[in-house]
């Protein structure tokens, strides 16, 4: 039985070459790898070995459609089919068809949008055939935009036809020029070929053409963007990436997608191992999704380790091919510092040989030579390190996050409904013209700007007639804030089903706070049951801690109203926080893991409490590290329940006194 013929999907450049070889456009070149020809076919080693054994390889398009069989060695081509779909496919004429249908015209190669001056110059040539050279790497515009712009320019001429020819670049100017001359001569046959005149300094684009170019090549600040953070485990790249996302969300104006954490692990990485091959596959998957986001003008933020330069270059190429911009951040925190920070003990396990192929220990990290910015987070705050990234982004023109949010047209700190408080401004009647959109209950979507006494300084007009961006200052005896200051703080605990961890948090927090606390503790589950009792095993851990009202508890599912009513949301795991923020990214300032919030408030001024503490924690929070999670003890037995209970109690004995302003007097 003869060996099976292997299949291979060539690169875009090789596919373009295949189309020209099969159509005869490269005559006299008829196959790949002729001596001295830039038209080559590179097969991966495994495919090459199988092809040599079978004597040929079958080339397929990205969708798996067989296009041709190529002899190995030799390079002779047996066509099987040709591409039938794609934008403007009806304009991809073979040389024979072009000579038959367009005879008598002057053939004009086009690689960029035609200017007004070039259109006028073409009138002297009578009927013309505008040949859009749309091959990989050749046109200044994307291939589709070049055809669209050429068609629009053709409408301005008396008699102009348009055809598309996939003449690719081979990164050899002399060889590419020779191929171009040969291809144009093959298409034109006996008809003349003329080049375009050089555009003058004041030459502009015709209106319709200019619109197409602007759409295809938007200004840097409107271009799709991939922010790619790379560095060792523990370098701070994820924390830095999250801080940048927060700043972007605060400013608004761009659609933003995070390709990091549990969302990626559930949806893109499922089934992959931690082998080198699978880790690189994971990076390529992330890169492909990020490139597609950039294709449509969005911003994607990724923070994988991505230790190998080859894979990072593949991601960069994907983004470039999609028309997006790739911004590489190398978080160059030294290995020693990363090991010092390692709360999970991963580096220690790697040094003991318990974790194979661990980057930095038993597997290399190839430092990028093409990073747009290099940041070492050693001994620096995240805010300080973030400033380096923001400054570099501003230099590129992709994003300007240096201007205060309020001066860039963000809505003032106005909230619909509820009593006004020290960090809020009363919502005026609709005809006052004050915008009141997208502001969270905590007023954390823009920096706090209050004076002592709680008056919102920059947002209040000090006399004169209130304008569309001003609110009348109330008289001192009617100053807003008293009712909000007296209103209880709403704390919402969240786990999965709301029958195990979050009810323990709710009931123990209520017990620790005491009956007179001006705080309301409640709970819900991301996949919560409706009106179920607390898990018996977990409930049993409350009695030794003095909690006796377990029977009154009833579970409930999490919903939007609960999230919006809460002043702060504390989740059991980072996965719960991600679940919430995937659907409600505007709430990112008030959603923490319990461990993250405890770690954050420990570093804050002990005089802060209540809403002031929550607002400051939102501004200075640390990362939602999975190492701070409270793991699910459900159906794991009494020992697992007690471990979870002890961990939650330890965290609540930090959080509850801090919220009450009684850190030294906790029960």
Automatic annotation (TrEMBL):
CDD domains tied to this protein: APSK
GO MF annotation: an example: sulfate adenylyltransferase (ATP) activity
EC number: 2.7.1.25
Domain Phosphotyrosine protein phosphatase I: 489-658
Catalysed reaction equations from the record: adenosine 5'-phosphosulfate + ATP = 3'-phosphoadenylyl sulfate + ADP + H(+)
List of residues binding ATP: 231-238
HAMAP family the record matches: Adenylyl_sulf_kinase
Name of the protein this chain belongs to: Adenylyl-sulfate kinase
Organism in which the protein naturally occurs: Nocardioides lianchengensis
Species classification: Bacteria, Bacillati, Actinomycetota, Actinomycetes, Propionibacteriales
């Amino acid at each position: 039985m003869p060996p099976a013929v292997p299949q291979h999907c060539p690169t875009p450049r090789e596919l373009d070459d295949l189309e020209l070889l099969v159509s005869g456009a490269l005559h006299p070149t008829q196959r790949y790898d002729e001596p001295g020809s830039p038209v080559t076919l590179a097969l991966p080693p495994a495919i090459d070995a199988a092809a040599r054994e079978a004597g040929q390889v079958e080339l397929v398009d990205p969708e798996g459609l067989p296009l041709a069989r190529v002899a190995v060695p030799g390079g002779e081509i047996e066509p099987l089919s040709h591409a039938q779909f794609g934008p403007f496919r009806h304009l991809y004429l073979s040389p024979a068809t072009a000579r038959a249908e367009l005879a008598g015209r002057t053939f004009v190669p086009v690689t960029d949008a035609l200017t007004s001056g070039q259109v006028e110059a073409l009138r002297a040539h009578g009927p013309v055939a505008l040949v859009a050279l749309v091959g990989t790497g050749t046109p200044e515009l994307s291939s589709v935009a070049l055809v669209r712009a050429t068609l629009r320019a053709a409408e301005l001429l008396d008699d102009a036809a348009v055809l598309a020819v996939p003449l690719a670049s081979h990164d050899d100017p002399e060889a590419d020029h020779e191929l171009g001359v040969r291809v144009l001569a093959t298409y034109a046959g006996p008809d003349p070929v003329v080049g375009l005149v050089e555009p003058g300094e004041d030459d502009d684009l015709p209106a319709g053409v200019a619109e197409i170019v602007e759409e295809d090549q938007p200004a840097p600040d409107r271009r799709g963007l991939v922010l790619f953070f790379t560095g060792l485990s523990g370098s701070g790249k994820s924390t830095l990436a999250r801080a940048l996302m927060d700043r972007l969300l605060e400013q608004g104006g761009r659609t933003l997608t995070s390709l990091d954490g549990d969302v990626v692990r559930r949806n893109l990485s499922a089934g992959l191992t931690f082998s080198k091959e699978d880790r690189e596959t994971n990076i390529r998957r992330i890169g492909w999704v990020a490139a597609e986001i950039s294709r449509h003008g969005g911003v994607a933020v990724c923070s994988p380790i991505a230790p190998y330069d080859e894979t990072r270059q593949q991601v960069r190429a994907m983004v470039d091919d999609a028309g997006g911009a790739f911004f590489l951040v190398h978080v160059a925190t030294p290995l020693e510092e990363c090991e010092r920070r390692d709360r999970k003990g991963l580096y220690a396990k790697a040094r003991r040989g318990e974790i194979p192929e661990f980057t930095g220990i038993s597997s290399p990290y190839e430092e990028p030579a093409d990073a747009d910015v290099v940041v070492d987070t050693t001994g620096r705050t995240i805010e300080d390190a973030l400033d380096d990234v923001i400054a570099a982004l501003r230099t590129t023109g992709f994003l300007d996050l240096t201007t205060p949010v309020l001066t860039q047209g963000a809505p003032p700190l106005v909230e619909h409904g509820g009593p006004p408080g020290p960090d809020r401004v009363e919502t005026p009647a609709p005809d006052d013209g004050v915008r009141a959109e997208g502001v969270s209950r905590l007023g954390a979507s823009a920096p706090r700007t209050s004076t002592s006494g709680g008056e919102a300084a920059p947002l209040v007009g000090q006399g004169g007639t209130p304008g569309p961006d001003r609110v009348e200052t109330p008289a001192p005896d009617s100053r807003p804030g008293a009712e909000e200051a007296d209103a209880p703080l709403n704390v919402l605990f969240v786990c999965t089903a709301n029958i195990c961890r979050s009810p323990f948090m709710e009931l123990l927090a209520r017990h620790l706070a005491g009956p007179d606390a001006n705080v309301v503790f409640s709970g819900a589950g991301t996949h919560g049951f409706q009106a179920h009792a607390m898990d018996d095993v977990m409930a049993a851990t409350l009695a030794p801690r003095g909690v006796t009202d377990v029977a009154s508890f009833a579970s409930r599912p999490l919903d939007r109203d609960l999230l919006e009513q809460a002043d702060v949301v504390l989740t059991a795991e980072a996965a719960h926080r991600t679940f919430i923020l995937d659907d409600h990214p505007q709430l990112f300032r008030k959603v923490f893991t319990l461990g993250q919030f405890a770690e954050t408030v420990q570093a804050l001024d002990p005089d802060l409490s209540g809403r002031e503490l929550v607002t400051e924690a939102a501004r200075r929070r640390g990362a939602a590290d999975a190492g701070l999670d409270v793991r699910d003890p459900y159906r794991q037995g009494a020992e697992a329940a007690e471990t979870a209970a002890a961990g939650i109690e330890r965290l609540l004995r930090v959080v509850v006194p801090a919220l009450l302003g009684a850190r030294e007097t906790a029960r």
